[in-house]
Amino acid sequence: MHFINTKKPSLDKLIKLFDASNIGLWEMFPDNTVHFFNANFYKSFNVSLENSTLDQWIANIHPEDQSQFEKGIETHVHSRIESFKSEYRVYNRSGEIVWIEAQGIANFDESGKLIFMVGSHTDITLQKNYNEKLYQMAYLDEQTRFFNRKKLEEDITIYIRAAHPFTIVLLDFDPIYHLVKIYGHSFSKEILELGSKVIKMLSKDQYQAYRISNSEFALLSKDIVERSAVMNLFTQLQKSILSYSEKIKFLSASKFNMSALNYPIENDPLTAEEVLTRAYMTLMDSQRKGSGIISFYSAQTKACILRNLHIETHMMQGLHHNEFYIVYQPILELQEKEIACFEALLRWHSSAFDLIMPDEFIPVSEANQEIIALGNFVLERSCAFIAAYNFKHKTEVKIAVNVSIIQLLDPSFSDRIKELVHQFALAPNQLILEITESIMFEKSDCIMHNLKDLKAQGIGIALDDFGTGYASLNNLIQIPLTELKIDREIMAQTLNNTSVISFLKSIVDLCHKNNITIVAEGIETIEMAEIAVLLNIDYLQGYYYSKPLSSEEGCKLSPKAFSKN
């Protein structure tokens, strides 16, 4: 017969068992006397195994954790909490930090007085270090040691859930990073270190810093920051960046952009992703305005940004969905007031934003090269319109089409024009291409070759909006022009400024001597029309005679419709 040994293990055996592990045992009494039982664990710490005191153990605890530890003990005793668990840092005899997990139970008498506490200490340093490494991998940028985008999103989420107002600032150093192509990656590293140093210095008191992309940083304040304070931060950053490095002193102080957003911003609560999207939209707004700009989020800013974003991303979609159309404004011969030409004007009726004017979408289309597709659309539709008009009215009215510098930089552009003229059976002089004064700054052989080739074919070349840019008399002679269009604002000044009339008179005479005809734009009153007659201008265009017309309206219009005016 086998008997089960029910004899309880002795305390010595238990202590030896724990000595073989990474766990220490302790007991404490109401007078704060502490006994540490297993020497193998506690020999690493500056304590006595027997008749030690709580103060002796507290002396080993990291100063930042001592207050929390003491409050924990006090709470357990006064609140009669029987079991507890905590984590804190202590120094071992070598001065190294060890993470301790303390677990214990407290025993109280019937009156609630503490009889004793017993528990264990476990060295969890390896686990803590591993968790810290995982934390750093998850939340810290390796190069700057700033928090990353993931941490930013989590911190914003915490503020939102707590209904706590905050300010987020985004910084974009992208213009500086473009210089990496010139100076190499060592320069990029220097810029990154410099930017990080400056951001850390200026943000330490009010903001938490984050690196959220290669060239973008974020600053998050747990309180609302006034606009003036953000502006001051922006100014300090500009000054500090240039004062830190001799190598980048050649850079302008305005080589980064900033946006700022205060939360809450709308009635409905937003997610962290939605907040960041609005902050990025505001940053995009500052980037559109140039480098060295700061933008503040508002409802108006949001509407403007969404509109601009739509223009940037939906232009080709709008073209394919027939949202673009052309209107045609008549240009009249001065004496008989017969229609001599139509100017083709592109419009965009967006399904999302209704009418979008050319001064909004043309610069964007030039920046992203979509002007090529838009330009081809206008040229084809305009040639088709004038061919149909002339066929119906048995006349030879011309069509004027605006072209971009981007189009003229295409070596095959003049050949494309030849094909269109042939395709629609037009006489070459029935097509006039309008260019702007900005072409003066393009020292391109390709542009000049295209213009000269087109003029040699008989295609008209008109300089549009004369008087608004930087055209010189010398340029008027050098560029192969056939026509000059005087801007509406200059024509409006002729009503009350005789010196403008004298200036235009000399321009008209010079152009006529060089076989360049003149069109007066923006004729809105009979007085302006009479001044045009006085100046001997060749053609008139403006709302006094006709607004821009749809292709159907224009095609119905008789060439002599205004001859009685």
Automatic annotation (TrEMBL):
Record-annotated PAC domain positions = 84-136
Organism, by scientific name, is Fusibacter ferrireducens
Domain named EAL: residues: 308-562
Leader sequence segment: none
Residues of the GGDEF domain? 164-299
What is the name listed in the Swiss-Prot or TrEMBL entry for this protein? EAL domain-containing protein
CDD domains found in the cross-reference section: EAL (cd01948), PAS (cd00130)
